[in-house]
């Protein structure tokens, strides 16, 4: 199976925060693979999976993790392909620990880091499409236009109905 | 002039933190362009420069800024090409304000964020090469091997001479 | 339609935190306009709306946003009228990211920043009235006296009934 | 003496961080008054000074302070004119304590807060001019254009000479 | 009415966090007075109340507030009696803003600061008794012994029943 | 009764966060003792309990506490055996205060600090087994393999069913 | 020797931050004693010193420490007299760790906490005088008046000479 | 060569912060080995070195790193021996990023974390001796007594000479 993007999560409990990101991939029919593997508990399986991903054409990697989030950095150390990191919100620090563990990579092994949590997971998928270029970049551009249209529809609603239209 | 990468800084005082990054670009002979432009003070010049960059073949954008660092996000809103953001260390908060202003982009307009300051600027250049692929990815890989060799040389020195060899 | 104040929010989900602020505007009959527009997704519509606002007499702008909150700064870059910024509480960092993205504006383009969330939205409205001067400043002063009266009523209750009167 | 702006600092050691702000006021010939008074040590003198300021035509107040910075809030409680607050960088927390003590004002008594330190002091002066309107707003606009020109000059230098022109 | 301790809260919504503190005062029959007054909205009433408190024998003041919590510092500026400050948990920063606004008082006007929220309110009451000395210090000591007995009872339970005894 | 590990908690309300840690100890049949004692309220009982623990063969101590968490440091000052500290999530700062109070021990009295909350309590138990060596280290190793197997099972599920299998 | 105040520091390197505090004690001739003792390294000497202090009439204790600053809390656990805590600025966290370790004391053992560093040490001395009452409270009041006079002198200088008088 | 402790640093620039720690090891003649290796750049060399360490009798591992400090966690994932982590102070966040990246390890792979920087490196060495037990624990105990003696000598000096003896 050919893939362009491979996504690594350290735990199945992280999938929830990626839900909107996966939905976008499904909508775009962007061929990807999801792995649930741990940098520290299953390092061999991780290395093998990444090797297979690259054989299958993978151009971009993404990894999401919470707390002392090492997975994106470890993935980045095992490939020269671009790696996108998503800090996940979990535990008492709610993802600021994961942010520091991913974005503050020392010089040499970059990880392109996104926002904490669901917003970051969605943006990670869009960023992957932007890196992949060609039709995927076009889909990202179309998606951006759709979101702009949604904003403009809200703007029209605001002009017609005022703020009360948006109160729950 | 053909370029592959375009780098935007909001102020000439930011160049110092990018020095090692520029040196890497020079070494690799990666065709790039540096702009000193501001998202808020010179929005038209920024838009024109980006249009010209794209005409000249630019595939990846990078932007660095300090404090309430809006430049990377504004650049990202004006192109569908991937944008790399580097939070710079300046002012009393020393770059944590810039980190939050860049990495916490809301869903829709991603910025691949690097570490604060010089480490992030270097990694931004490497990340750009990884995105560009082909020979640039190979140069990034060679660079990684060189750095690994440097580490291994230090390791040999540590085994032969012990810790005192590294004290200033 | 003549307006004195124009309020920009990046998303309709931000309206809830402005509810008390809008209620104050309604009570004061201060002519204002609410826009739901995004600095990054709908830059042209934002520019047009601001131009129309100024034509319609707008003296003060306000903008609220969460996460990497660029909207107040972008609004401030497009007008020489005073701009009030309200960081909104959203996402895993609960608005401290938005605070840094708004208040730490570099020299040249100021944003008068309020507290995070609903308290800031109310204060933004009061601050706008203070800037507008004349009858609006008087309404703000009357509002302040009313709130002082409410505090003094609570003080009397405390002296008469003690702390148990205030337990739910 | 007629004044339009009155600036309160809690200590003469705070003047240094306002130096560029004062230079701007001098350049614009904006009539202002500087007070060194403390919210806690000299409350009566503060109240009297503010009364005199208002008699002399003062339209906007500004206050800067470090650590548990109460001065801007106390000034705001004594006038219905708009008050601009500047958190100053001092002590081991370097101004983040002052930022929280100024920007997080509870509902009712707003303070339009600027960035920490010298950047905030400059922006406070510009913001005051924007509030004052008329010729002062024009001076702020001219200042913005000058700064934009400076940026564009740096941009030309970058295009002609590259990054090395900016290294010290 | 003679009082030894006077407690100032800025809002009746703050009473809840002081509930356990008030219960301790009731139990000890320590004569105190609760005021709901605001440093900024009702400065005259605050000054008058404090004058009356001192006439009525008040030896120690306490003040609790949330967000940019100026009340304890303002109370401290109006008396030479010791003032205890309690940062309250409210708003998106959950009391860390209030902590910085109270504990970081600049040299000259100290506020003896307690922990954020209910724990701090209880400790404030105990600290007041320690300052008052004599029988109140003895009550604080007896309270400490009671709490130690409670801990020792839990220790015996742990030795006899193990950890499961404490799971809900 | 022989024990190898002794665990000190400052309050019975802390037991909940240690539940998974205790379950692991039960599963491994690692002989341990739980104490509910306070560094500040019951110092003598704490000293006696530790003396008895050491007589009973205790090799490793662990202590968990929230807020200004002094218990691990005090335990560490009373024994030369290794002490593991677990910052607990409680109060408005949710455990970051406890983290600073435990991990930042000044030179001389180390505390091996774990993550905040339940994750840290589990890791503390595993770390104790690693220190104890011999069969306990083997049990820790077996536990690690089990967790790796669980991850690999999730990975197989991901490959077979995709992300939707993990949504609740 | 009779004393009223006893000050505990964990290290002689902490004395520098208390210099202005000691100077104030000398000026006021307030009888005090300085101890260099550690909560963890010299617990017996600490207990003995405190017993002697109380025999010698000590009414108020103060303790300053950096990093995971347990000394104030340990002192507070050994006396029913009021204890003032001063977080000191040392190490990479510059005293915010010490602040959390002192101010966040759990319910039962309060420590009246001052600002981080030299400002807090000065305020601690003033707060001790306020607690001691009588002539010491008068000296604190006179000191406050002196500082107010100094501020007023600066205010006169500001009115006569403007801001340039205060630039170095 | 037999060793009991193996220390991994990611860069020779980290050695400076370990200087006092190494001096203690030298003084105790505790057989150890220093490696300069990177988790991400030299993963194979790291794995080989650790295997050799274990063959040579290594009982305890230590690792220090700055920024997004993954080295301690990666070392911990490759051995069942106890691993001590030392966050190093480097870059604009001065080691708080490294602290979060080390201490917040998710459940399963513990790292016993020390304070940031030089204090943590010293404590790491002491903690290793405590884990090793036997004569090394005795040396740690003797070291603790020596430091206690040093404190007591300072205490005598304080009683004899007062605070001025300690001012530089």
Q: Quaternary status of these chains?
A: homooctamer
How many separate helices of chain A? 6
What string gives the helices and strands of chain A in order?
EHEHEHEHEHH
> Which two protein chains have the largest interface (Cβ within 8 Å of the partner's Cβ), and how many residues from each?
F-H, 37 and 37 residues
Strand proportion of chain A: 5-15%
Structural class of chain A: alpha/beta
Number of strands of chain A: 5
Cα end-to-end separation of chain A = 46 Å
Report Rg of chain A. Answer: 17 Å
Helix content of chain A: 40-55%
The average pLDDT of chain A is 97
The side-by-side strand order for the widest beta sheet of chain A comes to: 2-1-3-4-5
Largest sheet of chain A: 5 strands, parallel
In the predicted model, the low-confidence regions of chain A spanning at least 5 consecutive residues are none
**Global outline of chain A:** globular
Gist of the model:
The structure is a homooctamer of 168-residue chains. With 168 residues, chain A is of the alpha/beta class.
What does this structure look like?
- The structure is a homooctamer of 168-residue chains.
- Chain A has 168 residues and is an alpha/beta fold.
- Chain A contains six helices and five strands, in the order βαβαβαβαβαα.
- Chain A has helices at residues 19-28, 43-55, 71-77, 96-103, 118-132, 134-161; strands at 5-9, 32-36, 60-65, 83-87, 112-113.
- In chain A, strands 2-1-3-4-5 form a five-stranded parallel sheet, sandwiched between helices.
- In chain A, α3 (71-77) links the parallel β3 (60-65) and β4 (83-87).
- In chain A, α1 packs parallel to α5.
- Chain A is globular and about 60 Å long.
- In chain A, 64% of the residues are buried.
- Chains F and H meet through β5, α5 and α6 of F and β5, α5 and α6 of H.
């Amino acid at each position: 199976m050919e893939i362009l993007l491979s996504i690594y999560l350290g735990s199945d409990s992280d999938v929830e925060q990626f839900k909107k990101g996966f939905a976008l991939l499904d909508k775009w029919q962007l061929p990807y693979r999801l792995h649930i593997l741990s940098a520290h508990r299953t390092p061999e399986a991780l290395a093998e999976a990444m090797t297979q991903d690259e054989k299958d054409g993978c151009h971009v990697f993404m990894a999401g993790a919470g707390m002392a989030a090492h997975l994106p950095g470890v993935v980045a150390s095992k490939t020269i392909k671009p790696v996108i990191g998503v800090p996940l919100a979990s535990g008492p620090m709610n993802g600021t620990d994961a942010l520091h563990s991913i974005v503050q990579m020392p010089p040499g092994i970059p990880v392109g880091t996104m926002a904490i949590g669901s917003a970051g997971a969605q943006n990670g998928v869009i960023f992957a499409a932007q890196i992949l270029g060609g039709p995927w970049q076009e889909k990202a551009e179309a998606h951006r236009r759709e979101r702009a249209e949604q904003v403009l529809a809200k703007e029209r609603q605001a002009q017609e109905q005022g703020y009360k239209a948006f109160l729950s």
